[in-house]
Structure formats: structure tokens, C-alpha cells
Write a structure and sequence with these properties.
Largest sheet of chain A: 2 strands, antiparallel
Radius of gyration of chain A: 18 Å
Mean pLDDT of chain A: 91
Strand content of chain A: under 5%
Number of helices of chain A: 15
Low-confidence stretches of chain A: none
Number of strands of chain A: 2
Helix content of chain A: over 70%
Oligomer: homodimer
Strand order of the largest sheet of chain A: 1-2
Distance between the termini of chain A: 31 Å
């Protein structure tokens, strides 16, 4: 019988968090390999941090869709590498200018701006390197499709595009719709990619459900982020709290108010869960993960 | 009968330069697509500039190896996009801090630092997007191999790694060997990738010859760059001349002196040409291109 308890989920999540850490450790060049400082800074930025939500989404979707674990490993690593690169570049002085990341000095503070720039660049390349490992998938066309999904999720009509809109929105009054569009690109695109890549072996119905699930969880994730950013203090959050509101960036909380933002997060959560209804216990991890994401207080 | 004249080569090169411009124009999102400023800045940085040496190498290797023109187009575009992203990031204040590129304001001068950062990031994603176009190659495994070559050429053990070594070498006395290692990564890796991707359909002997050719031409290219940087004035070069020597970066000219550097360029050229000997007129464009690269005075 399947164990539906929270403690069972946390054990599963912990196992996968350790697993992705090992996969990334293996994928990143050792820090005694030239250029040593670059490799050391890449490891500093990509290892040992965060909840690995994107990797967990990838693994959970892989469990629904019976995607081989080696494929899920590579996909999860690729997505986490793209995420890590984006954090390094976002923290730079010309972007958000943030000194703290996951409770440690951000990459450009620990090293320098030039290194941080190259770290982000090289982490992005490494993501595509990992996902283009020869013979990863029995079906090579499937692997090409995965690479294409990742490239589009990262690019100017995905994550990088969302960043650009975010930057240009500072000091502007956005509508909820415009804010959603921005987040759909900035964080949503990569979260969707994480789940879709994990769903590589799924049926049409499964992939379509994962798509709806990921779209809604991606937005919920951002709404929660804005709520946490308002409520949490810097120590709990591991990054500078209240930063977005301080820098006059529109957030769900500033647009909707705290209560409506919380209700929205719950709605998005329910829609995400609803999409998984046909799949019973095979979607257990995705379902638990949705609760985990929308209830996090870390 | 094959036409071996310089004017015939220049006509071929012009045709391919126009062709890659069209391929890139098609691959880059239009600048009326959101986020408009990002797309406009991507087009500003990737279109209308340079001799497209990497694309020419790709097309010339494709002619030797009978690689389909659609594959050569995608490969050439991907390599040029990686090259364009690297120039945008290199010019940024935290790197080389260069205000001029190809005779125009560099991206961060024309727009701003944050935009330049995102332009580079998004151009890199676009390179992998273009090369992962579904059904590009009849042999999907070959396409995955091409993606893997590009990812490694761009990453921390390729171009980005070379950049890191270059940055850390400012003010240091490098040996010729160390300088070669640095350039082999910084410019050589992508130049090799350009030729190798073009050679995708080649025989073992052809691919191996292209490898030797590209390795030597890549180094020759850099030696010539250093010579031009010493000799040319800013207007002819389209970028700030004497910049590397001014910033106390080791160059072939500072290490070897001008005459020995010129002799080295000729040697590398001869070795490159020598590798093509077995292939007669089918290697004509690669051979002409080698002369073009080592004799350029633009």
C-alpha cells in the first residue's frame, strides 16, 4: 500500500535532493581542473543549496510517466544548472545587486563580477552539455525534443525574457495579468520545463496533465515567493528580504494585497492537483510536491 | 573546371555571408515581439556585423563533407550566436570594458549593462534552440553529437574557460605554451566546433583532417589578431586598437615580437593546408579560407 504521509514524502524528497546533489557534483568539473577558480566558483554556485524544487518536479513527473531514472537525472541536473546560472547573473550589481544567496555571499561577492559573469555563462553551457550526453535516451529524437524545450524555456521567450520584462517593470504599475505574463516567463517557463522533461516517457494524457499542473504550480510558486518576501525575515529566507518591494518592483502582494494573494495561491494549487485526478497514486509525488511548494514556510 | 581565383572565393564568401545573415535574421525573434527591447538588442548584437569567419568555416567544411545545407545553416547560426553572445559579455564593464564593437557602440553602451547581460544569456540559449530544431538531421544521434560538441566548445573547458584564464593572466608573464593553451580555449574551441559541425557528414579521414586544419587555423587566427591589434588603428579595426597590450595582457606580439609572430602565423597556415592535401578540389573553400584568414588586413 502506498504511504501518503508527509514524513514519507519528506523522506522521498530528501533522497532526491541528495541524488541531484550527487548528479550535479559528477557533472561539474572538479575544482582542481583548470581553470580552477572558474570551476571552484561554478561548484560554489551550483552545489549545496536550495530546496531543488525544479529537480523534485522533474523526478516526480518521471515517477508518473515511468521515465528512466538516468534521463530524469540528466534532465533535473540540466534544469538546476540553468536555474543556478540565472541566480548568479540575477544577483550581479547590474541586475538585482544582491549580496546574499541561500545564506551565503552571492557569487560576485565571494569571487568578483567577471567570474560571476563567466560562471553563469559556463553553467548554461553545462546544462546543454549534460542533456546532450550521447545515448542518454533510447529514442534520440525524444532527447532532441528535450533539448529544444530546455533551450526555449531558458531563452528570450522564456526565463531570460521574463527577466527583461521584470527589469523594465521597476516603478511601473502592472496589472495582475501583466504580472502573470512576466512570471510565466521568468520562473514559470523553467518550472514547466522541469516537469515536462521529467514527463518525457509519458502518454499524451500524462504529458498534457503535467503541463497544466506545472503551469499552475509555477505561478503558485511565485505568488508564495512574493508572500514570503513580504513576511519572512532575512535569516529565514537566506536572501535579503523585502527586496522586491523595496526596489519598487510590482509583486502579487503589492497588487492584490496579502489575503487575496494567499487565496490565489490556494486556487492555483487546487487547479494543479485537479489535473492529476485521473492518475491516482502514480501522481502521488507530484500531488505531495504541490502541497510542499504552496505550504513552504522556509 | 574549378575556379581557383581570389575573386571567385570572395564571391563565394559574400554569398555565404549574406546567407548566414538571412538565417540569423530568421532565427532571431522580431523586435516587435515582447520583450521588445531585449529582442531589439539581440538583433543589434548578432546581425550585420563581422566577417562571419566561423560561419564560413562551417560552410566550407560542409562543402568538403557533403553536409546538407540546412544542417550547415543551423550549425553556422548556432556558432555565430555563441560568438555574438561572447562578444556582448566580453565588452561589459566587468570584463574588457570596451565601448566599441565592429565600429558601433557595444551592446551595453547602446542599451545598458543589465540588457547586455540578458542579451548574451538569451543568445546562448538561442544557439542551442536553433541546433536542437526537431528533424534537422536524418540521423538524430548525429544531431545530439553536434549539440554536445557545441556545448563543450562554449563551456568552462572551452570558450568560457579560456576567458577565465585570459582574465587571470592580466599582468602575468605567460610562456608561449601557456598563451597557446589559453587561446586554444578562448577562440580555438569555437572555431574548431564551427568546422567540425560543418563536417558532420564527413568520413573519418575528412573529419580528422578538418580537426587538424581547424586547430591550426584557430591559433593562426589569434596570432593574426594580436598582430593586427598592434598594427592597425582604431578606425580600420572597428574596435579600440592596442587595447590588449595597453591593458597589460600577454599577446603573441609581446611574447614573440612582431616578426616571429608573423612567421608563426605562416607556419600554422601551412600545417592547416597540409592536412587538406588528400582531398583536392573538394577542400578548395577550406584552403582559400585559410589564406583569407591569415592574410586579412581588415
Amino acid at each position: 500500500m502506498t504511504d501518503h504521509t508527509e514524513s514519507d514524502f519528506l523522506t522521498w524528497a530528501k533522497t532526491k535532493q541528495l541524488r541531484i546533489e550527487e548528479v550535479l557534483d559528477e557533472a561539474l568539473p572538479p575544482d582542481d581542473q583548470e581553470p580552477q577558480q572558474l570551476h571552484s566558483a561554478m561548484r560554489y554556485s551550483a552545489l549545496g543549496g536550495g530546496k531543488r524544487v525544479r529537480a523534485l518536479l522533474c523526478y516526480a513527473a518521471a515517477e508518473l510517466c515511468n521515465t528512466e531514472i538516468e534521463i530524469a537525472d540528466a534532465a533535473a541536473a540540466a534544469v538546476e544548472l540553468i536555474h543556478a546560472y540565472s541566480l548568479v547573473h540575477d544577483d550581479m550589481p547590474c541586475m538585482d545587486d544582491d549580496d546574499l544567496r541561500r545564506g551565503k555571499p552571492s557569487c560576485h561577492k565571494q569571487y568578483d563580477d567577471a567570474t560571476a559573469l563567466l560562471v553563469g555563462d559556463a553553467l548554461q553551457s553545462l546544462a546543454f552539455d549534460v542533456l546532450s550526453t550521447p545515448q542518454l535516451c533510447a529514442n534520440a529524437n525524444q532527447q532532441i525534443s528535450m533539448l529544444n524545450i530546455l533551450a526555449k524555456a531558458a531563452g528570450s521567450t522564456g526565463m531570460a525574457g521574463g527577466q527583461a520584462i521584470d527589469l523594465s517593470s521597476v516603478g511601473k504599475a502592472l496589472t495582475q495579468h501583466e504580472l502573470e505574463d512576466m512570471h510565466q516567463l521568468k520562473t514559470g517557463a523553467l518550472i514547466q520545463a522541469a516537469a515536462l522533461l521529467g514527463a518525457a516517457n509519458g502518454s499524451l494524457a500524462q504529458i498534457s496533465a503535467v503541463h497544466v499542473y506545472a503551469e499552475n504550480i509555477g505561478l503558485a510558486f511565485q505568488v508564495i515567493d512574493d508572500i514570503l518576501d513580504t513576511e519572512a525575515d532575512t535569516v529565514t529566507l537566506g536572501k535579503t528580504a523585502g527586496k522586491d518591494a523595496d526596489s519598487n518592483k510590482p509583486t502579487y502582494v503589492t497588487i492584490l494585497g496579502l489575503d487575496v494573494a494567499k487565496r490565489l495561491a490556494n486556487q492555483l494549487h487546487e487547479t494543479a492537483i485537479g489535473a492529476l485526478a485521473p492518475f491516482g497514486d502514480q501522481a502521488l509525488r507530484l500531488r505531495q510536491l504541490a502541497s510542499f511548494i504552496t505550504q513552504r514556510s522556509f
